[in-house]
C-alpha cells in the first residue's frame, strides 16, 4: 500500500471500505464485489421487465469495436479526449529485449506499440450501426435493439460515478422520425417511472455533454437548443451537480446518414436510444439506501427482487 | 458489404449465417446473439453449481487493468505480442484539427495517441494478485476467488475459437503448495466430469502456450516438463488441433513472489487457477450439438437448463 499516495475520500472511500468497490490504484478503474454485481444484475432485470415486451433483438458486443467503424462514426469530432485506441507490440526479439529493458528501467516502453484494428467502445450502440446498415433497408415497422457492454471513457476522476470503464445498457430504435420520437417519448415516461420505483431523487434535464474545444461548444449549444438529449439526473457524488444515470437521445438522421441506413420507404433512417448507466444506478441505490441491501426500503427491495 | 474482401468460411461462416455471431469486419471480434449469450449464461451457472459451494469470494474486474500492475506481472516477458495497451488523445485544438484531417485523408492518426494508465486484461486473474497482496498475509486456510471478465489477446484469426476479446471465468486459489495443488487436482476431476456431462469429446493434455521468441521456447519447455498447466481440449475448428476450453494452471510461487503474497506461516504463497473459456465452450456446444438448442440432446439440456 502506498503510504504517500492520496487516499480516496468521501463516498469513494466508503465504497472501498465497505468492499463494494475494489481499488486498483487507477482513478475510475475498480473491481466490483459480488454484492455490487448482484445489484447490477437486479437492475438489468428491471430494465428488461420494463422494455422486454417490445420485441427488441438482443445483441451483445465485446468492449471494443472496429477502428475503421469508429473513425467513420464521427465520435472523434466531438469527444477525441475520451476515446481509447488499442495498441500492440509487433517487433522482433531484439525489440522485445529493448522493451523489457525499458520496463525494468521505468522508461516508457509504449512508444513502440502500434495501433491495432480495434478501439474501446465509447457507447454501447456504436458497434451496432454498421451492422444494421449491412442488413439493408429497414422493415416498415423499423427496428429495435437491446444492447449492453462495457464502455471506456478516458476521464480519470475521484468521483466513483465517473468511471473509465463502466457498463451501459441501451435500447436503440431505428425508423421514421415519428417512430423514433415516439420511442423516446415512451422511454422518457417509462424511465422516470422505473427510477421513481427505486426511491431515489430524480430530475430530468437537457444533457450537457463534454464536447471538445470551441467548435464543441457549438455542438453542445445545438444539442441543448434542439432538446436532442435528455438526462435523468440523480445526486450521487454531489447534490449540486447530480449525475446522469439514464439518457434519452434523439440522433435525428446523424447515424442514418453516416452509415447509409434507409427506411422501408427509402428515406434516411432516424435513430434514438435510451441508455442506462449500470454502475451509476447501482451507486445511486447504495448512496440513498445505504450499504446494507437487507435494510433497503421494502418497496425498493420488492422492485429489485420481485 | 465488401464484395472484394474474403468472406468467412466453414464453421465461422455458419455461425455468422445462423446469426449466433455477428461480423464486425475485424477477425476475432464478433457481436453475440441473445441465444449465444443465453448459452454462455447457462454454462456460467453450471460452473457455479460445481464450484459455488467452496465459498469463493466473488470479484468482477472491468476488461482493463492498471498498466503499472501489468508491467510488474511478468506478462510482457512471455506474451508481448498478445498484450493490448490503451492510448488516448491529449492534444489541443490544433492537434485535434490535424487528427480530423488525418482521419478524413485516411492517414494514420494514432501516432499522436499517448498511453494511458490502463491495458486490456490478458487473463481474468491478473488484476487480482495486487489486490490480494495489499490485504496482507493469507489466513491459515488460504484464499479462493471467483472471477470473470472480458480478456484481450491480439491474435487476429479466422478461427472463431480464437477471439481477440472473449470472456474467461476463473477460480483462483492462494495458499500453501499443498492447498493449491489439492485445489487443482479437485478441479481436474470436476472440470472433466462437468464437461463430460455436456456430451462433447474431451482430451486432457499438458498446455502449449505461445511463449514469445527463443527465450520463450525455454519457458514453454519448462511449463510442459513440470506439468504446470493442463488443458481440457475439445475439437472445434479442427479435429487435429482441438481447442483448449478449460485450463488448470499451477503457478508455483510466481505470483506470490512477484507480489509479495505470504501465507499465514510467513512463507511465499503459491497460487493455482482453473480457467473456463466461455465463448469456446459455447462454440463447442454449437459445434457438436447443432445450432438449434431445442434439438440438443435431452441429457445436455437438462444439465444446462435444470
UniProtKB/TrEMBL annotation, chains A, B:
The family database entries (NCBIfam families) matched by this protein are listed as: PRK07080.1
InterPro entries for this protein: aa-tRNA-synth_II/BPL/LPL
Looking at the keywords, is Secreted present? no
Q: What is this protein called?
A: Seryl-tRNA synthetase
Alphabetically, the GO molecular function entries are:
aminoacyl-tRNA ligase activity
Q: Which domain of life is it from?
A: Bacteria
Protein source organism? Bosea lupini
Query: Per UniProt, which keywords does this protein have?
Result: Aminoacyl-tRNA synthetase, Ligase
